[in-house]
């Protein structure tokens, strides 16, 4: 930065507000741009939405437990499954992955923050605005009811007159902007800000998988944005895009949606793959087997993931050539996925396995995801898929890969990284209860759905009748009841996790600095890490740098001998701390800008005056943002100290 | 490494700390954003191409397009790319007066293009093509309208940039900020070349 230019501060640039430096308490969180605080905020909000989505799922299972269910009306049932899926995908899974990425990605690459800290805060607040708008529809005339894929023309004004779909369209556009900004931010962070010596092939696998995911988002989000904008134009301004009477093509929405929707599937699963690729080696006391294969198979899953979208549309009459091509591409994607599974198995092979809660969840992922992956291959076969389309067999498949895969991966991450983030260990015993209840509950809930689906029980039907339930082993009533009981066992499993968190928070005992004998750079600092992450930017020589600083390999016998403990390494870094670390300062603008965007969006439903107010707030905060330097200048502080350094910076040391 | 600061306006080379790619954070982010924008316009262009011949009410494309007029306004927009290049080059030579001049001209050319589009939309509307008239109408206005909004945002950015430079309140490297807006501007121009070819020149 050119130092001879005049120092400028927000207090000068717009005259209205002072920069929120040195804030304490809730304001410290509200205006923060620290990637770790934002990561925790993402995590808390996402977990809240996980509970909301879970309760919606329990309503669905209650309705279907007995014949002629009366808990929900047909209309409420439609809203329930639509919002269950929307919430779990956009408001839990993606932001929870963003929570892990935000917190650990800079730490894993030895950086002090992300590339654009204020944009990072903007992403979070936009995501929260989008989530609130989506769920506000429950109280403002009913939620969206067209399924998470919201097929047009069914979601057009004629067939979906309630404004639930309008809230859905707006909420997702805003959450989409949040993800897009976040993905650009993380890609730049990974590509530009790695510690010296950390080449791409020395990056931890979690960072690699997050990088692949961000590329998927950058190139798939704009496509669904187009679909959402077209639908919004039709619903709010009378455009004709999905009006079949005007000659519109009903497949347009399906193509646009699934060009986004299928990469989205990998957006959901790859972060979990990344997490367990850290957990499995750590708890097997072995390096990851075939690191380059895991990395490149992840990247190729991402690449091929863009070419398989039409397998969601086999039943729509695409024609034999398209069906054959997409069928082959879909089968091909099983290859890199299989490569990963074998790499994980061989990582554990011959290792000294430590069955911690994190490890249990990671192994759970490998097993359950494989079951879901195998039923996935049966969908790749088009003739078989046309039999399964819109049956519970599909529901079984994607819950095995998403719940058994993604959610288990995220829980593995909770147990693995909790001591890093909060400095306290989650209780292992409760973790074991948590794990087994979730495994048993998940298999009881989703396993029977295979049978229900093959028997022909359609998705999205709100009641079933005893008269048509069939007999003996294939009786729909029996398996629906098993599934519903399973869902409550699953809920108890999640409850064990919440109890564990409360218990751990009350516990005074501090976690050791390196409780798992871990391998990557995030452990080369205190727990929780300081504001500036690293006292000294580490210089990287190895894949698994932290491990190689602790252990040295004997060149002839290849025996690893421990030469240092994690604690000693962290102390050594503290002793050699850098002087003068400048960190980006808190800012009002991300929060204000996202409020402006939310108001602007609501204006599309509630009228132009509200839109104008929103647009003015957006304009005002954009200018405030541009004129505010990201690192606070001495003039932002009340009394800068004499050596030119500010109180905030002084407090870092 | 001591004063490494990780923030929006971090100009890696000024700190003697080189980014791994050699591009500054801002520039890399702009390229990624433009990559994403390609798919946004890709989706809109595909929608238009699918629907351009589908007219049940109102005029057909061939009945209302005024190719000579749109060619002139396209030429104006293309020339604005040239003046943008001159603005970037002046900014890199730290010639504030000339930077300012070329930025004004670029903004004026952009505004002229937008004026042309407003005129064109008005004429089409009078000739019976509304946003809700037909699939062709909806997809035409959505695509060209989105592009017009992009140009307008570009004009606002150029004018704001001039104001900020004039008041000496620019945060970060001035030449790079001009260059970043330039990247955006060229992208919007290139998209127009594609739109002009596909929408206006190829008969449906």
TrEMBL record, chain A:
* Transmembrane residue ranges: 40-60, 80-107, 119-140, 167-193, 205-233, 253-276, 288-309, 321-346, 358-382, 394-418, 430-452, 478-502, 591-620
Q: Does the keyword Heme apply?
A: yes
Lineage in the entry? unclassified sequences, metagenomes, ecological metagenomes
One of the GO biological process terms:
electron transport coupled proton transport
Give the membrane topology.
Multi-pass membrane protein
Name of the molecule in the record? cytochrome-c oxidase
Which positions fall inside the Cytochrome oxidase subunit I profile domain? 20-541
Cross-referenced Pfam families: COX1, Cyt_c_ox_IV
* Pathway as given in its UniProt record: Energy metabolism; oxidative phosphorylation
The cross-references to SUPFAM superfamilies, in alphabetical order and at most eight, read: Cytochrome c oxidase subunit I-like (SSF81442)
Automatic annotation (TrEMBL), chain B:
**What Gene3D superfamilies has UniProt attached to this entry?**
Cytochrome c oxidase, subunit III, four-helix bundle
| Compositional bias ranges of the Basic and acidic residues kind | 1-17
Q: Which organism is it from?
A: freshwater metagenome
Q: Which GO terms describe its cellular component?
A: plasma membrane
Tell me what topology the record assigns in the membrane. Answer: Multi-pass membrane protein
From the Swiss-Prot or TrEMBL record, give the protein name. Unannotated protein
The Heme-copper oxidase subunit III family profile domain extends over 1-204
One Pfam family linked to the record = COX3
The membrane-spanning stretches of this chain are: 28-51, 71-89, 101-119, 139-165, 177-202
- Where does the UniProt entry say this protein principally localizes? membrane
Q: Which family does it belong to?
A: Belongs to the cytochrome c oxidase subunit 3 family.
Q: Where in the cell is it found?
A: Cell membrane
Q: Where is this region: Disordered?
A: 1-20
């Amino acid at each position: 930065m050119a130092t001879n230019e005049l120092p400028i501060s927000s207090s000068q640039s717009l005259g209205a507000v002072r920069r929120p430096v040195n804030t304490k308490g809730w304001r410290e969180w509200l205006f923060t741009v620290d990637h770790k605080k934002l990561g925790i905020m993402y995590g808390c909000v996402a977990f809240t939405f996980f509970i909301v989505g879970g309760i919606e799922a329990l309503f669905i299972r209650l309705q279907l437990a007995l014949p002629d269910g009366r808990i929900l009306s047909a209309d409420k049932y439609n809203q329930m499954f639509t919002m269950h899926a929307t919430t779990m995908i956009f408001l839990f899974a993606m932001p929870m992955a963003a929570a892990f990425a935000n917190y650990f990605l800079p730490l894993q690459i030895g950086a002090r923050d992300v590339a654009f800290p204020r944009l990072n805060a903007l992403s979070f607040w936009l995501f929260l605005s989008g989530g609130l708008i989506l769920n506000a529809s429950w109280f403002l005339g009913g939620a969206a009811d067209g399924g998470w894929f919201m097929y047009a023309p069914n979601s057009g004004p004629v067939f979906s007159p309630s404004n639930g779909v309008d809230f859905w369209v707006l909420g997702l556009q805003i959450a989409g902007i949040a993800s897009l900004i976040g993905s650009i931010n993380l890609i730049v962070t990974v590509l530009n800000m790695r510690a010296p010596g950390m080449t791409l092939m020395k990056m931890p696998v979690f960072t690699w998988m997050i990088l692949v995911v961000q590329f998927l988002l950058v190139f798939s989000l704009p496509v669904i944005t187009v679909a959402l904008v077209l639908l919004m134009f039709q619903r709010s301004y009378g455009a004709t895009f999905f009006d079949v009477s005007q000659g519109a093509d009903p497949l347009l929405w399906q193509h646009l949606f699934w060009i986004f929707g299928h990469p989205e599937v990998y957006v959901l699963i790859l972060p979990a793959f990344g997490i367990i690729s850290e957990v499995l080696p750590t708890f097997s006391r072995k390096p990851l087997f075939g690191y380059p294969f895991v990395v490149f198979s992840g990247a190729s899953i991402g690449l091929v993931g863009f070419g398989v979208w039409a397998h969601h549309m086999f039943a729509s009459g695409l024609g034999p050539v398209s069906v054959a091509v997409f069928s082959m591409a879909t089968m091909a994607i099983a290859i890199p996925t299989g490569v990963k599974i074998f790499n994980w198995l061989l990582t554990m092979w011959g290792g000294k396995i430590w069955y911690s809660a994190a490890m249990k969840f990671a192994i759970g992922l490998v097993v359950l995801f494989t079951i879901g992956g195998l039923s996935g291959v049966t969908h790749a076969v088009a003739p078989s898929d046309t039999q399964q389309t819109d049956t519970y067999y599909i529901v079984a498949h994607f819950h095995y890969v998403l719940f058994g895969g993604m959610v288990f991966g995220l829980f593995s991450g909770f147990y693995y990284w909790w001591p890093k983030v909060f400095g306290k260990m989650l209780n292992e015993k409760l973790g074991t209860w948590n794990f087994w209840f979730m495994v048993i509950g998940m298999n009881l809930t989703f396993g029977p759905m295979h049978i229900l689906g093959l028997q022909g029980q359609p998705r999205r039907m709100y009641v079933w009748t005893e008269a048509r339930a069939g007999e003996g082993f294939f009786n729909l009533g029996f398996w629906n009841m098993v599934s519903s009981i399973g869902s409550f066992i699953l809920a108890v499993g999640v409850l064990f996790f919440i109890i564990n968190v409360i218990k751990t928070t009350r516990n005074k005992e501090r976690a050791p600095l390196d409780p798992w004998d871990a391998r990557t750079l995030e452990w080369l600092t205190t727990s929780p890490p300081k504001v500036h992450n690293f006292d000294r930017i580490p210089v990287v020589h190895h894949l698994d740098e932290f491990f190689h600083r602790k252990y040295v390999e004997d060149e002839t016998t290849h025996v690893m001998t421990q030469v240092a403990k994690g604690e000693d390494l962290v102390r050594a870094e503290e002793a050699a701390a850098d002087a003068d670390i400048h960190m980006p300062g808190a800012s009002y603008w991300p929060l204000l800008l996202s409020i402006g965007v939310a108001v602007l969006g609501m204006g599309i439903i509630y009228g132009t005056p509200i839109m104008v107010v929103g647009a003015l707030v957006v304009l005002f905060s954009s200018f405030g943002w541009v004129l505010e330097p990201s690192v606070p200048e001495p003039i932002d502080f009340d009394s800068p100290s004499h050596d030119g350094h500010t109180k905030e910076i002084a407090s870092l040391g | 490494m001591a004063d490494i600061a990780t923030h929006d306006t971090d100009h890696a080379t000024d700190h003697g700390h080189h980014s791994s790619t050699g591009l500054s954070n801002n520039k890399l982010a702009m390229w990624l954003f433009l990559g994403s924008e390609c798919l946004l316009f890709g989706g809109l262009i595909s929608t238009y191409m699918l629907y351009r011949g589908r007219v049940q009410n109102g005029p057909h494309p061939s009945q209302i397009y005024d190719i000579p007029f749109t060619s002139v306004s396209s030429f104006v927009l293309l020339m604005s790319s040239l003046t943008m290049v001159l603005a970037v080059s002046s900014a890199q030579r730290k010639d504030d007066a000339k930077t300012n001049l070329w930025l004004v001209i670029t903004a004026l050319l952009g505004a002229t293009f937008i004026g042309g589009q407003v005129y064109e939309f008005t004429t089409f509307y009078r000739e019976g093509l509304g946003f809700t008239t037909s699939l062709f109408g909806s997809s035409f206005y959505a695509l060209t309208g989105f592009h017009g909004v992009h140009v307008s945002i570009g004009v606002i950015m150029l004018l704001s940039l001039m104001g900020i430079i004039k008041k000496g309140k620019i945060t970060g490297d001035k030449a790079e900020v001009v260059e970043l807006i330039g990247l955006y501007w060229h992208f919007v121009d290139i998209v127009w070349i594609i739109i002009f070819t596909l929408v206006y020149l190829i008969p449906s």
